[in-house]
Amino acid sequence: MATFFERKIEFLKGVGPQRAELLQKELQIFTYADLLQHYPFRYEDRTKFYKISQVRENQPFIQVIGKFVRFQLAGAGRKQRLVGTFADETGTIELVWFQGIKWVQSRVAVGVPYIAFGKPARFGSKYSIAHPEIEPLTEKNKQGSYLQPVYHTSEKLKRKFIDSKAISKMMKMLLIDAVNHITETLPAPLIDQYRLMDKKSAMVQIHFPRNAQELQRARYRLKLEELFYIQLRLLKLKISRIESFPGIRFDNSELLNTYYKNHLPFELTGAQKRVVKEIYQDFRSGKQMNRLVQGDVGSGKTMVAFLSMLIAISNGTQCAFMAPTEILAEQHYKGLKEYADLLGIHIARLTGSSKKSERKVIDQMLQSGDLPILVGTHAVLEDKVKFKKLGLAVIDEQHRFGVAQRARLWKKGNNAYPHVLVMTATPIPRTLAMTLYGDLDVSVIDELPAGRKPIKTYHMRDSHRLKMFGFIEKEIQKGRQVYVVYPLIEESATLDYKDLMDGYESMSRRFPDYQLSIVHGKMKAEDKEWEMQRFVRGETKIMVATTVIEVGVNVPNASIMVIENAERFGLSQLHQLRGRVGRGAEQSYCILMTGNKLTTEGKARVQTMVESIDGFKIAEVDLKLRGPGDLMGTQQSGLTELMISDLSKDTEILKLARSLASELLAKDPELKAPENQVVRTQVNAQRKSNVNWSRIS
């Protein structure tokens, strides 16, 4: 038996099967609950009337009371418009219609009092409102006194007369019955302590608020509830993971101390020291570690991973280090080998192209325990790869590995679960990390090593192309190398390929004396690899590529990153690409090439890049511009579930929600206390419908 809120939307009076089908397709509204949680995105203030003399162009929507003095038709053909002169005792304003002129003429008369509502604009000394809403003045609407909700709809729905007003009508109809079925979902002590509005009132006031104060209270209540349940779910996962999965206890740090005293190639930054300390505390707790380390490109995550591995090896266990591509695995292998050789620690690499004879030796050494560190790609996850005692798994660029693959990694720990350390160079704003990775412990490396010069970023338009070429030439003459990157947008792969080839041609013509590399998605893996390696060895001076180079290739000699059509990239991607240069001691540059015309958002992105090299600051701006779903790739983020909260604005509410959820679980982990029954009921109801999108392993 479906509950009231599970009823199909077509059964609501005034909807019916045809409108229901449209609502499902366009707005994903299937049930009464879906409609009720289709919240307004703004409200029009109908509480106040203005005199015509008070009208100003910078006002949002306003309403005035007056009478039409006259109507006239202006313009001809398709440009014809109807202009009504609307007056009160303080002055006149023009009300203009470009469409539906006959309909307006048949409904509106001169000399009758009306309320007109719309957005004022100014032309010279005159004010006008285009396509105002008009209704005859009555005793009831004379009082004003309500905030009109405005709902998201779509062009298709509007064509079928399902506009915001129609949705508002449906909502009124639904609320008449729904009010009797809405039950409280937060514990009474919490409501009392924070003086929250009750659930029933909040649901009515969010749709039809009496005034701005009531709306504010309703919003706060619903946001806090939404974020509280997300955090509760994540924290419960974390608790159950810690209880169900004991970790191997690491007390010995002998190798770490030896390396630190005798071989450390550079002074660790304060941030690196702090993160190593956090990891060591996890190791000694006897609980299985699941930690995410975030840090910009070049912040020293690999060194942190290596020091963590030394602790694991000191305690007689083995380590696996996984990277998403062969090039990256090779790069990490070389970097880690330099460190490991100083201590006489054996390290091997395993990728899809490892020879059979190499694999045989690796397998034997892994099973006998003589191989402490294995670096590789997904090949490490294959069932035939068996460790004697896997103690720590390090995963680079977490979002490139699926959940199922990580689960296989866990099974490799005989009789105990390996600790998991995940590294990402994608800066995730704190609010998003708390929600996306709420069941993980998050560490942040927010300092760059001493001696690194910040990358200088410039914005150039197409008209400055010759200047950009000249700049590149100077740098190549100094012995440096250059990346030129083109966007890759799946829907228009042919267009992108053409852009890339055109770019390659014009670079070849402009720099006939230098060798060029080219890398794009249509090439075979071995051809890509060959071109990359030529660039790494310095045989080619310019690498023209699509975004395949985004993750991880380390070419210290490359000092310029030119990003073509920079306005077509998201901020986090621009930041990632910029991080490909600036690996050496030389000054590096990033040049953002754009067309001469930019959208407001395009301008904001380019401006942010020019002004800041702080990945977290950039991620915060990205979150504001794009919203959380887009930022992480909606399918994986699970944040599409956010009905009313906005992570870019509701940081404080999120922090409160997390601490409330944390307190509640500390006192009553099983939610058995009588006052927490409502929470238990809500959690069970959510469990039916929600997927777990935050688990790392």
Might you state the CATH topology name of the domain at 254-285 and 299-424?
Rossmann fold
What's the CATH superfamily of the domain at 254-285 and 299-424, by name? P-loop containing nucleotide triphosphate hydrolases
Shape by Cα distribution: globular
- Helical percent range? 40-55%
Mean pLDDT: 86
Number of strands: 22
Instruction: Give the structural class.
Output: alpha/beta
For this structure, what is the CATH class of the domain at 254-285 and 299-424? Alpha Beta
- Beta content: 15-25%
Protein name: ATP-dependent DNA helicase RecG
InterPro entries: ATP-dep_DNA_helicase_RecG (IPR004609), DEAD/DEAH_box_helicase_dom (IPR011545), Helicase_ATP-bd (IPR014001), Helicase_C-like (IPR001650), NA-bd_OB-fold (IPR012340), P-loop_NTPase (IPR027417), RecG/Mfd (IPR047112), RecG_dom3_C (IPR045562)
GO biological process, one term: DNA repair
Keywords: ATP-binding, DNA damage, DNA recombination, DNA repair, DNA-binding, Helicase, Hydrolase, Isomerase, Nucleotide-binding
